[in-house]
Structure formats: C-alpha cells, structure tokens
Amino acid sequence: MPKFLVIILLLAVTNVCAEQAQVAIIIDDLGYRQSDANALTLPGNITYSILPHTPFGKKLAQKAHDEKREVMLHIPMEAENGKKLGPGGLTAEMNEKDIQASLARAFAEIPFAAGMNNHMGSLLTKLYSPMTWTMRFLKERKLYFIDSVTTGQSKAEKIAHQLGVPSMRRSIFLDNELSAEYIQQQFMHLINQANKHHSVIAIAHPHPETIAELTKLIPLLAEKNIELVSISQLFPQEQFVKTVNMATD
Q: Which residue segments constitute the domains of the chain, with CATH numbers given?
C-alpha cells in the first residue's frame, strides 16, 4: 500500500476516535438507604455522588472507590422552597468561613472524592458570594464542580470558570418520572444530545425503577459508538493543570 494511503487511513482512524461522543452518568442522592448500594450493580463507568454525613454514604463511597468507580460529593444547598437540607448543607446565611469549614468536613469524610455537584440549591446557586466561596474551596483542592441546574438562574458554572475551576452542567435528568417509558425516552434523548454536542452529563437516582432500566439501556451507548466515561474524563487534562498553576500563583 502506498505510503500516502497509509497516512490518510491513520488520520481517518484518529479523527473517528477523537470525535467519539462521550456521556457521563451521575447517580446522586446516595447515602441514606442501604438499598442505595444496588446502584453499584450498574454496568460501565458510572460516577457516584454521595450525600455527606449520611448513614451509608461513607461505606458506599469506599466500595465504589474500591471498584475503581469515580466518587464525588452531592452537597446540599439552600432551595427557594426552604426544604430541609440535612447534614453538610450550605445556606445563604453562612459566611465564607462557615461554607469552607462545612465543605472541608464533607471532603474529609470521603477524601478521594474528585469533585462535587449541588443537591437542590435553587436559591444558593443564584448567589454570587456563596458560589465564589465554594469555588475558591474547590480551586484550592483541585476539585471540579458540576452544576445540577436546579434553577435557570444559576451562577455556579460561570463563577467556577472565572476562578479556573473545571466545571460543566447537567444536561438531562433521566428519572424525573419513575416509569420505564419515561426513562427510556430520556435515555434516547441523551443519545441524541451526545451525538449533537459530543459530550453530555446526565443525572439519575438510585430508585429500583431507574436501576432496572439503566441496566438494560447502558449497553446501547457502545452500540451507538458513544463512550461512557467518568466526569473527570470529560475535562481536558490541561484544565486541571491550569487550575493547579492558578492556585499556586
């Protein structure tokens, strides 16, 4: 085979690999129920987000970590409806010291957590100061932030980018309704969005209905040439290097 044809074929293969769509699926709200461990039976590179200071959170996080799954923290943040936050929650009344101390306690419990996303937070993620204090904490420790987007007015991702914190936002909730038909519909939407945007983040929860459906649906990603990746894999590695450099200036 002529040398120039070999080069063209190699370039074609490289381009196909480079353009492969990627999906990350976060299972969050983990830690209050022993049955949450069933989420670890899901196939593939799932990311698990643990509520801090919960009865089963630390044990579940350790098991996921031992199985080489990515673990993050699901930090409660104040909502507009005033719903009770639970332990480790961040509120608008807290100052920078309070917020950073609360985050430090949460990450001390699960020190291998790679980042965090917000649990609720329709009020707090709209507020500049609490989000700035949160991102400063994450930047200092080289952690990422995923905006669960519980309000269209969230400032979290924008502030994270301003401070050099690796950050993306949730695109799709897979199980706002717990019917097989709805979860299947959302998963097909996830596939379409991945092909359109190249990388997409979905969030789901450890409901029995969700686990049953996702166990059947996740293999479809490979069939569609979509790679299931951890959250960290969605970020260019230089973004983490940049964060390190900025944090040590």
A: 21-247 (3.20.20.370)
